[in-house]
Amino acid sequence: MAVRLLISVLVISLFSFTYASDPAPLQDFCVAVKDDEAKVFVNGKICKDPNMVCADDFFFPGLNMPGNTSNAQGSKVTPVNVNQLPGLNTLGISLVRIDYAPYGLNPPHTHPRATEVLVVVEGTLFVGFVTSNPADPNVKNKLFTKTLHPGDVFVFPQGLIHFQFNVGKTNAFVFAGLSSQNPGVITIANAVFGSDPPINLDVLTKAFQVDANVIKYLQAQFK
């Protein structure tokens, strides 16, 4: 188990550095200051006094522990980005562990600031992503899918809608590297039907070409 975890992390690290999209650091490190302690707001996070930096600023424990998948989607994402590991600030990389119950789903979502490279450690996943709108309005968005097994790697390009679905009868988990210290995530259904305040009903009925009662039902699932 330990060997598999090490291989997963190494693969993710190599891919994430290759595709890093954040600006390059101008010093050895810039450990992030917590937002509630910052005196100014910048694009990213301000640096902790280097004389106050310690080893724990570069350390995060516990990715060997499964996440709790007892939820409607049957999945759990455990992030390790700059908000959990301040030493990642300015380094252009982050990591997640994702656990899936049998038939669990990490629903369609995007990362606006990062490419994601995923490696399966256990289980069988059906994964995919959809391209952006083609220049020709008569051409549909293209879907790319693949069934993955332990040791398989798949990459989701930055900003594109993607998903993972556990098609096996046993638990599954993966590690994924992302090319940003703070990749962000937009879960499509939550954003469209669960925003606060809600998107105007006329907008959604027009966009989806369905009856208003259908939209009301979908919005009710996210209250």
UniProtKB/TrEMBL annotation:
Where found in the cell? Answer: Secreted, Extracellular space, Apoplast
Signal peptide range equals: 1-20
Protein residues bound to Mn(2+): 109, 111, 116, 162
Alphabetically, the GO molecular function entries are: manganese ion binding
Predominant subcellular localization, coarse grouping: secreted
Q: Does Hydrolase count among this protein's keywords?
A: no
Keyword Disulfide bond in annotation: yes
- Give UniProt keywords alphabetically: Apoplast, Disulfide bond, Manganese, Metal-binding, Secreted, Signal
Name this polypeptide is given? Germin-like protein
Q: Which organism is it from?
A: Abeliophyllum distichum
Top-level taxonomy: Eukaryota, Viridiplantae, Streptophyta, Embryophyta, Tracheophyta
